[in-house]
Design brief:
This protein is mostly beta strands and 623 residues long. The protein folds into 4 domains: 27-239, Sandwich (Jelly Rolls), CATH 2.60.120.260; 264-382, Immunoglobulin-like; 394-542, Jelly Rolls, CATH 2.60.120; 556-621, Immunoglobulins (Immunoglobulin-like). A hairpin with a 4-residue loop joins strand 8 and strand 9 (166-174).
Length: 623
């Protein structure tokens, strides 16, 4: 009887409750990754063949691989053997899904160039080895990188037999989760080694390839289905006189994760907002040693301006790097693993970029594999804030039984500034579901609890994701510039609960600054990552990303001084003229030929045509 009453009570209450949450969904389209142009057909590769995908770039090295859709990623969250991995997923080199079929279909391929194995015999023990990891990363569901392949999916390895031009499958792994692999083997990344013993393969035209067989994710929400069944490959080696029983024990001290920002929170911030207090106190550097015993290594970093002029450097000296196996250890000594930020960038007003270079070396001369010994970071200062790296890994959105949803992203300022535009990157979807989602840009000040409080700005008219900008930045210019200070929350109000599919970057976790409102209180996101949402400041941002500034050649303001009405000659159609007081706050604006200034206090004002290359003009108001 008690249970029956409880069920009846729930049935009565549920329709009156508001339920909501934020969601992350896989991409349905990615950025095209065309093969870099090569001047001539690369020659066949001689042994040893090695690649740990540590070089910068979105595609595999052209002197090692043929192009088959696989991409290269820094993939810091995956903790690979060394920095950089090859990724095989369900998005092709053109940026499209290979298929939306629920049945298995072939997807990405990572195929080597021909290898010169002529001259080797079976007794030479030529071995191909590699590490692999399925998507998902073994993390909590809200922090997982890449979709886990299901049981019916697979990663396959084929050898090319030149004698009859046939590909022969020699190894495969069915779809499996990282958690299952860890419970079975005790490690995340799995090591595989295979003898190339058949004399039919020992030819000058031998090649090998990895293939990903996928199936689309089952979902009732087409706007949330997308890229699936990820596999990661790292540390591929083909060489002779090896065995298959043990992983190679190279004297290889290397970085595992990409270089971090030197700032405590942002990858990019406005130049005029930067202060030395924005610097991180220390950096998280993950360093590994793939040898069978500890190795002495030295670590340092240096900072230079855009002209290569050094600003400052740090030398962490020599420390012993512990052997990676069997306990998967990383460098723990703070001088290398948590180096202090012992300098700061100069105060600036104009956009500039600095290059930060980190180097780790085994001994005095380094080891055999130098690519993974150096990682770099370009520290940008511009006219916008960014937590993200500019590339979406997933899509973010809100769902609720409420008709209005609110998303707010926190940014901290050191001085008054004029927020003029917001860049958003909405992902492209198969059915264009998110094109019909209406939203309004909003700005909030912080309340006493540090949450979004007073509404500072709200678009007058609804906007929609632009069909011409899906998959790239869409600039939303504010109706009128907003003066903001200290802490501001930038986001939008969404009408309806269709998944809006805003780009979501997994490379840096700023979830503590993402808030959403679906009922009567703000909630913090639990999803590890950053929104592709960037607030822009100053008149430069009023020029759209893909359009030039509107020139104004003959702008005349009269009478000057003015006392009641200020007239404007030469203002382009629909251009916005804004008057600022001496504190930089906008006090009046017009898209027409006149502005009523009767209510403004007497004084000097600055008139600026937003989105124009015309110089600001002084206006005197004298009543």
């Amino acid at each position: 009887m008690r249970m029956s009453r409880l069920i009846i009570l729930l049935c009565i209450l549920l329709p009156t409750c508001v339920w909501g949450q934020d969601l992350v969904a896989p991409l349905q389209y990615g950025r095209p990754t065309p093969r870099p142009a090569v001047k001539s057909t690369p020659a066949a590769v001689t042994l040893p063949f090695f690649d740990d995908f540590a070089r910068d770039g979105a595609t595999p090295r052209a002197d090692r691989w043929q192009h088959g859709g696989a991409t290269v990623s820094a993939a810091g969250a995956l903790l690979p053997p060394t920095v950089g991995v090859a990724c095989l997923d369900a998005i092709s080199a053109t940026g499209d899904l290979y298929s939306t079929s629920l049945s298995t279909f072939p997807a990405d391929t990572l195929c080597s160039l021909p290898l010169r194995l002529d001259g080797f015999a079976p007794a030479d023990s030529v071995v191909l080895s590699f590490y692999y990891l399925p998507g998902g990363g073994g993390a909590e569901p809200w922090a997982r990188v890449g979709n886990t392949p299901e049981e019916g999916d697979s990663l396959m390895l084929d050898f090319f037999r030149p004698t009859d031009s046939v590909w022969v499958n020699v190894w495969a792994s069915p779809g499996i989760s990282v958690d299952s692999l860890v419970s079975r083997t005790g490690t995340r990344w799995q090591y595989v080694a295979l003898h190339i013993a058949d004399s039919a393969f020992l030819d000058s035209a031998f090649a090998f390839r990895f293939r990903n067989f996928c199936s689309a994710e089952v979902t009732t929400k087409p706007g949330r289905a997308g890229n699936s069944d990820f596999w990661y490959i790292d540390y591929v080696l083909v060489d002779s006189h090896r065995d298959t029983l043990h992983p190679p024990r190279f004297r290889d001290v290397a970085f595992v994760q990409p270089a971090p920002s030197m700032l405590a929170h942002y990858r990019t911030m406005p130049a005029r907002q930067y202060r030395p207090t924005d610097m991180a106190s220390s950096l998280a550097m993950t360093i590994t040693n793939l040898y069978s015993s500890d190795l002495a290594s030295r670590y340092s970093y240096s900072v230079a301006d855009s002209n290569g002029v050094p600003l400052w450097q740090y030398n962490g000296g020599y420390e012993n790097a512990p052997a990676y196996l069997p306990a998967m250890q990383y460098q723990q000594v703070d001088a290398h693993a948590q180096p202090p930020v012992n300098g700061s960038f100069p105060l600036m007003t104009e956009p500039t970029t600095y290059l930060v270079t980190h180097v780790v070396r085994e001994g005095a001369s380094g080891d055999a594999f130098g690519d993974n010994d150096t990682v770099r970071f370009l520290q940008h200062f511009d006219n916008y804030y960014a937590y993200d790296d500019g590339t979406p890994d997933d899509g973010y959105g809100l769902t609720s039984t409420a008709s209005q949803l609110f998303l707010a992203y926190r940014f901290d300022l050191h001085q008054l500034d004029t927020l003029t535009a917001v860049d958003l990157l909405f992902n492209r979807t198969t059915d264009g579901e998110n094109l019909g989602v209406a939203f309004r840009i909003c700005l909030w000040a912080a309340d006493d609890a540090g949450l979004p409080g007073e509404l500072l700005y709200r678009d007058a008219a609804a906007r929609h994701p632009s069909a011409d900008h899906l998959g790239r930045w869409q600039r939303c210019r504010l109706d009128a510039p907003a003066i903001v200070e200290e802490r501001v929350f930038v986001g939008f109000e969404q009408e309806g609960n269709t998944f809006i599919n805003l780009g979501f970057d997994r490379s840096y976790n700023s979830s503590d600054r993402i808030f959403y409102l679906t009922d009567d209180h703000w909630q913090q996101s639990i999803h590890a990552g950053s929104l592709l949402l960037r607030p822009y400041f100053g008149s430069e941002a009023l020029v759209a990303i893909d359009e030039p500034a509107t020139p104004v050649t003959t702008l005349r303001l009269w009478p000057n001084p003015a006392n009641s009405m200020l007239f404007v000659d030469g203002l382009p159609h629909d251009a916005l003229l804004v008057l600022y007081n001496i504190h930089g706050r906008p006090v009046a604006s017009s898209r027409g030929a006149q502005i009523d200034v009767a209510a403004l206090p007497a004084g000097i004002y600055i008139a600026r045509v937003m989105g124009s290359i015309a110089a600001p003009q002084k206006v005197l108001i004298a009543h």
